TrEMBL record:
Principal cellular location given in the protein's record: membrane
Keyword Plastid: no
Residue ranges constituting the ABC transmembrane type-1 domain according to the UniProt record: 29-307
Membrane topology: Multi-pass membrane protein
Pfam (any one): ABC_tran
Name of the featured protein: ABC transporter ATP-binding protein
Matching InterPro entries: AAA+_ATPase, ABC1_TM_dom, ABC1_TM_sf, ABC_transporter-like_ATP-bd, ABC_transporter-like_CS, P-loop_NTPase, Type_1_exporter
Similarity comment: family membership: Belongs to the ABC transporter superfamily.
Organism this protein belongs to: Fictibacillus arsenicus
PROSITE patterns, per the entry: ABC_TM1F, ABC_TRANSPORTER_1, ABC_TRANSPORTER_2
Domain (ABC transporter): residue spans on this chain: 344-578
Compartment annotation: Cell membrane
Annotated CDD domains: ABC_6TM_exporters
Highest taxon of source: Bacteria
Amino acid sequence: METLKASHLFKVYLWTLSFLKPYKWLFSLVILSSIFITGIELLIPKFIQYFIDVIVPEKNTKLFFSLLGATTGLLAIMIYLSTVRNNLQRIVQEKASRDIHFNIFSHLRKLGFSYFEKTPIGDTLSLMNTEVTAVQNLYRQFIPFMIQEAIFSIIAIFILFTMNVKLALIIIPAFLLYYLIGPRFERKASLLSKELSTNRIALNKKIYETISSLLEVRAYSSEKWEYGRLNDKVITYNKSMIKAYLYAYIRGTVRRLSYYAGAIAILIYGSILVRSNSLTVGEFSAFLLYYFTAMHRLTAVITSMTEQRVLMYQVDKIYQMVNIKPDVNDPERPSLLSEVKGHVEFEDVHFRYPASDDILKGFNLNVKPGERIAFVGTSGNGKSTLLKLLGRFYDPSKGDILLDGVSLKDLKLSQIRDSIGYVFQETYLFGSSIRENIRFGNPDATDEQIEAAAKAAYAHDFILELENGYDTLIGERGIKLSGGQKQRISLARMFLKDPKIILLDEATSALDNVSEVEVQRALDTLLKGKTTFTVAHRLSTVQDYDQIVVIEQGKAAEKGTYEELMARKGIFYHLSEGHHGTQLPIAEKEIV
């Protein structure tokens, strides 16, 4: 199990506290309230001492009611301050936790595709839930709690020594007993808590995976196999939970035994002092109250410090993520295109993914505004990668890509992506209404503009046939719609966005013939006057393109119109002939 170094732990701790800075005055009130509450708590044993030593012997009713009134008043103030403190604490906790959520979201937006391609979605969900909850616990329990408990313990021990030095010295061996035995169980409990946290995250990831794959699991009749894997995670988590709770119980028992041993010693020696009139009964009672409370809180502080390390182990995962450097950044002094025309140039572009060979090896292409370009070739030659580079989701390892004569690296990412529209093979739809899904293309669009875009995408008619029309909820990822309907919603987004450049990544390859005709009709309208790049397997969709670029071994092996390439009888011709002139080979799903 990984152990955080003290220096790194301190750095993460300071980073966590930095989110409290905007709310420092509110947090100061929380601490101030805790100090006042502590002061009242420290007075209570003294009141009991006064009651036993003065009021009871004298049977002074007036003093009794005065003391009762003072105690009641202080307790009322303490309850009020506790309520104020808890509410303020909750406000600070929620605001700071919200800021951490925003910080995570903001950084996730900046991270490149490489992070999401290698990081399971369950890990990211865990950051947003389990790890942020750890921060909330830190804000709610440990920081104010430790401050209050530490202040009480220090002052109470000081009071004990002012009351009777000899009797107070007994605290030292009682505390040393805990300090000598306790840390062994503290360290073990800490490691087991880390293990429990890791297994909880693994279980949550597995639950997410199991729910997400229900359709496939049922289709393969593999429920027993999949639920067996889930059960393994549940068993592992339960075992670690039992062990963690067992050691937590042993730790608590050791703590109690240590200060009970001290209490027995105090009772024996304190009784001797009372009998010899060196200590009053009231003083002895107050001493015992201070002792029990101080020891309980002091050992609780030590335990909290250990548990805090467990929380920091979780918080560190957020810290590590938000400190990942994005693959792609905005330039410090960006250039600004007054109007994007759509002239694109690939100049000696090389690219490789981490731990892989070069996929692109000197790719060159000059595309004029409004031209339609089709990338074809066998799987794994970099067709989809070119689209990702054009959207600047990655940067070339060598060479450059220019938009209207300006390097993409010199343009703001927002201008690049505002100028580009994407239509993928698998359209992502939100689990909201059709209207909101189309509005995704332009959040400021009116209802009239949304309907106009749907008509242009040949989606308006099928939308009206639905029970609630444009306000129909389509389920998670648009599960209530067919593939063709999803794709037309995606095209409606593009009509609404109206970008200068369109990127199509196998936009019709997963559709049936009827749906493909409908979507292709919408595409023909959308692509008019747009610079278009298409990754396609069906030649029927690109025969009238301005250029077809055959990519082989990371380079543009052939370029030309459909007729020109067929006449050369080169690579493109053989690919076409080998698949009856309609379908390029698909060995596997294109992933690069």
